[in-house]
Structure formats: structure tokens, C-alpha cells
Write a structure and sequence with these properties.
By secondary structure, the protein is mostly beta strands. Helix 4 crosses helix 6.
């Protein structure tokens, strides 16, 4: 009796309005008891063993609803969509939100209970550290939701990989009238390569290709690997990295006064539906796991001030259909309408000697949400502000004419200020159980700043047809769904062109 009384006290503390519903309180305690003895209620064990944790959790996950007010109308989402949010965790781990929860309602008798589940495992990239007051004894609901979701028939998202384009470029056709046509091969099936059409006097350069192409957009160079533009790994204009993977095109023109104008566009389509490898048919047609598209346009004005110092000022406009800075939700957390990001990038190259050069890239970005009336989860009105930078020191001909050593320091994409806004129906009076519309802001500007330190040595031979390289890297305060951590890695790379 004392234990049952304590369990009831917990129920009435969490949902005070249950004090006026003794029948519902009794139903919760009895239905959540662990069965003992013969199936059902028996004369020896009655309803079974008291389970306090189960009484604080939903009686049936399948009957929960999330109540939203979207586009001026009320929408009730079932936990089938909640399960989809738990199973499909998105593509990138960028954000560290505090106080982010899903509110779900359980109708029981003639009243209801509300539950809120921490989103550290449900919204891609989220890692939260909350105290018991904020959590309100609901941490157990997260694992129970995941256990329930894993038992449901749900689509399995495909795994995508990023490509790192190589430095090899060989001439297919060499014209005799001042033009050159050449080809840069990609490294795998997701990076097909690029065609280069250039005037030999440098007045015009055109690059067109499929796959990773972010490294071709700036006329200044200095950051010639696709990983330099990856928002998780490098700090050289991650806005281009977020839109690379599909087709890309860039035009570069020589201008008066030792200037050069470059402009272009790139896009990517991350289709997460599962396809039959033989027929090409989609095995699961589910809007939750549809295509996630992003596109970007870029313009840069480069100044070749001296033989040693070159400067460039670039502008990038990024449009993401269903995400914000590469992070995406699923199910009820899908960000319909996506976001638009405007960024400025300052780039500089300085040649200290004929062998040693320094390169720097700094990017500042502002992100706004679009389609605000259609999605419960979007960028808050004040928007997001993010930064990234990378510094490279490159020493060429260290041991032979075709080798180089590169040391780099990068701050990958980091959100300096801003939050997500999530609007749902919640209990607004804890005494009476009255419900109303509530908008919460999930702060994204928390956590440590991620820094990456890397050293890479590369050598090519046989007229550039073969190359070999090795690297070592240390990541400080990296963030993923498990939280903040440090990581050390080493690796080698070998390529052959034929």
C-alpha cells in the first residue's frame, strides 16, 4: 500500500488534474502492472507487480497523438510519424540543442496525459544535457519510444557517402588555337569528375561537371579538396559544400586592373528512398524518406594585387528545401519549406617563397526559414548566424618536385547565435490540464567550438598518373548525437589514373 500510494503521488504530481479522475488513476496503476502468475487477473497475484516507471509512461505508444496548429488549422499526428522521426535521424550532426522536446498526448477516460520526450536521438545532431527539473522524470520515455519504434515496420534509410576529388587533371584535347580542354576524374561513383575549358591566355575558364565540385568555384585556389568544404570537416565556404554532389558549373573571366570575376551554381539531391539495385524501383514509397535537395549560387571577385598576395571576396546563396545548414528532421519534425542562407567569404593567398604559401578562408552566414506557415519546426524569427574558417600552410617540393606537405587549422561550420522554433499544442495550466498553443525556442548556439588540426603529405609520379598520400588529424570538441568528444585519426590514400 505505501508503494502504491507513492506511485499515485507521482502521477498526481506530474498530472495534478488526475486528482479529479480517480477511475483513470486506478486504470493507469492496474494496466501498467507487471503480470505475475496465470495470464490475466488471478486470485494469488491480482493485477501483478507494481511498475512505477511504466505508470509514468504511455499505456499504448500507438495511441499517442501530437497536436499541432499548422497553417491556421489543427493537425493531429499519430505516433507512426513519431516513429519515423525516431528511425530516420537525418544526414549531418551539426547542432546541439537545449530543452528540445516532443509533446505528445494520451487520451484516457475523459481526460488526458501529456508526455515530452528529449530529442537528443530524434532530431539529427541534437545532444542535450538537462537537469532533473527540466527533464521532469521523463528521460525513460526516450528509450521506451525508441524500443517501440524499432518494433514497427519502418523504412531503413540508405547510407550516403561523400567524395573527395583528387588533384589529378590530364588533357584529353589540346587545341592549337589558344584553347585547352581537360578532364579531372572523380574518386568514386558519386563523383564523376569535371570538364575544364580554358583559354591559354587565361581570359576565360569554364568548369562543368557532376559530383563534388565546391573546390572549383574560387579562382584563388588554396583549398583544392572537397573535404575542405564539408561543414563537418573543413572551414572553406561550407555553404558550397552543403550544395555539392549533383551537377555544377562555373565561369571565370579576366577583368581589368588585375581582377577576375567568377560565378556559378551547384546542386545536390540526397534521395533517401530505398531502391531495388536491379529494377530501380523504390522498395518503400514514403514521403518521410523523400529527396532532400539543396542548391547554391556563387559569385567571387578576386584581386591579384601583387606577385605574392591575392585576395577574393565571394557571395553564396544557399537554398535548402527540407533542412537548415545540412541538418534535417523527419516525420513530424520535417522542416517543410526549408531555409535560405546568405554568406560572405573572404579568401587570401600569400606566397612567402617559391615553395611555401599560406591560404586563408573565412565565412560568415545568416540563415532564415521559409514556408513558416506550413511547418511546426522552423528557424526562429531572428534567424541563425554561423561562421567557419580554415588556414592552410603548404610547402611544395619537400623531397621531390611533385610532393607537398599541408598543415591546416579549421573551424568547421559553427552556429554563433540563433534558435529553432517549434510550435505545438501543450498543457498550459498544470493544475487544470488546460491546453493551448506554445512556441518553444531551441537554442543552437551552445556547446564548444569544434577545431580540427590536420597534417597531410602527398606525392605524385608517372607524370601525375599515380599519387599517394598520408594524413593525421585531431578533432577538438566535435559534436554528434552522443555529445561532445575529441578524436584522433590517421589514414593513407592511393590513386591511379589510366
Amino acid at each position: 500500500a505505501p508503494l502504491v500510494t507513492g506511485a499515485i503521488s507521482l502521477l498526481h504530481d506530474r498530472w495534478p488534474w488526475l486528482q479529479d479522475h480517480a477511475d483513470v488513476t486506478t486504470q493507469i496503476i492496474l494496466e501498467t502492472a507487471q503480470e505475475l502468475g496465470d495470464p490475466g487477473v488471478d486470485e494469488v497475484y491480482g493485477h501483478g507487480l507494481l511498475d512505477v516507471q511504466a505508470s509514468q509512461s504511455p499505456l499504448d505508444w500507438g495511441s499517442l497523438e501530437v497536436w499541432l496548429n499548422v497553417g491556421g488549422g489543427s493537425t493531429n499526428l499519430t505516433t507512426t510519424q513519431l516513429a519515423a522521426a525516431a528511425v530516420d535521424q537525418g544526414t549531418l550532426n551539426l547542432w546541439e540543442a537545449q530543452g528540445a522536446n516532443i509533446y505528445a498526448f494520451e487520451s484516457i477516460g475523459n481526460t488526458h496525459r501529456d508526455f515530452y520526450v528529449p530529442l537528443s536521438s530524434l532530431l539529427d545532431g541534437q545532444s542535450m544535457t538537462v537537469n532533473s527539473n527540466t527533464e521532469r522524470f521523463q528521460r525513460h520515455t526516450e528509450q521506451r519510444l525508441l524500443d517501440w519504434a524499432s518494433s514497427q515496420p519502418a523504412p531503413v534509410p540508405t547510407t550516403t557517402t561523400s567524395s573527395i576529388a583528387g588533384d589529378d587533371k590530364f588533357s584529353l584535347v589540346s587545341g592549337g588555337k589558344g584553347w585547352t580542354l581537360s578532364f579531372s576524374p572523380g574518386d568514386n561513383v558519386n563523383s564523376w569528375g569535371a570538364m575544364h575549358f580554358e583559354a591559354t591566355n587565361g581570359s576565360l575558364s569554364v568548369v562543368s561537371g557532376q559530383g563534388g565540385g565546391a573546390q572549383y568555384f574560387s579562382a584563388l585556389g588554396g583549398f583544392d579538396q572537397l573535404k575542405d568544404y564539408d561543414p563537418n570537416f573543413g572551414g572553406a565556404n561550407p555553404m558550397l559544400g552543403l550544395a555539392t554532389g549533383g551537377s555544377f558549373n562555373r565561369v571565370s573571366l579576366a577583368m581589368p586592373r588585375a581582377m577576375r570575376l567568377s560565378f556559378g551554381a551547384t546542386n545536390t539531391s540526397n534521395d533517401q528512398r530505398v531502391q531495388d539495385v536491379f529494377t530501380g524501383e523504390y522498395l518503400v514509397e514514403d514521403s518521410v524518406l523523400g529527396s532532400r535537395d539543396a542548391s547554391a549560387v556563387f559569385a567571387e571577385l578576386a584581386f591579384y594585387n601583387t606577385d605574392k598576395l591575392n585576395l577574393g571576396f565571394g557571395y553564396t546563396h544557399l537554398h535548402e528545401d527540407d533542412g537548415v545548414l545540412g541538418a534535417q528532421g523527419a516525420g513530424l519534425l520535417t522542416m517543410d519549406g526549408g531555409s535560405r542562407t546568405d554568406s560572405l567569404t573572404l579568401r587570401a593567398n600569400y606566397r612567402l617563397t617559391s615553395r611555401l604559401s599560406l591560404s586563408a578562408s573565412m565565412t560568415g552566414a545568416t540563415t532564415r526559414g521559409t514556408g513558416l506557415e506550413n511547418s511546426p519546426l522552423t528557424v526562429a524569427e531572428e534567424g541563425l548566424r554561423a561562421t567557419a574558417f580554415q588556414l592552410n600552410a603548404t610547402y611544395r617540393t619537400l623531397f621531390k618536385d611533385t610532393d607537398r606537405l599541408t598543415l591546416s587549422l579549421a573551424q568547421p561550420l559553427h552556429i554563433e547565435d540563433g534558435s529553432l522554433a517549434f510550435t505545438s499544442i501543450q498543457v498550459i495550466d498544470r493544475e487544470t490540464g488546460e491546453i493551448g498553443e506554445v512556441t518553444e525556442n531551441w537554442d543552437l548556439a551552445t556547446g564548444g567550438r569544434h577545431f580540427a588540426y590536420e597534417a597531410e603529405y602527398a606525392m605524385s609520379f608517372n607524370e601525375g598518373m599515380m599519387s599517394i598520400g598520408a594524413f593525421t588529424r585531431y578533432d577538438q570538441d566535435d559534436v554528434d548525437v552522443q555529445g561532445t568528444y575529441d578524436a584522433f585519426s590517421v589514414g593513407t590514400r592511393f590513386s591511379m589514373t589510366y
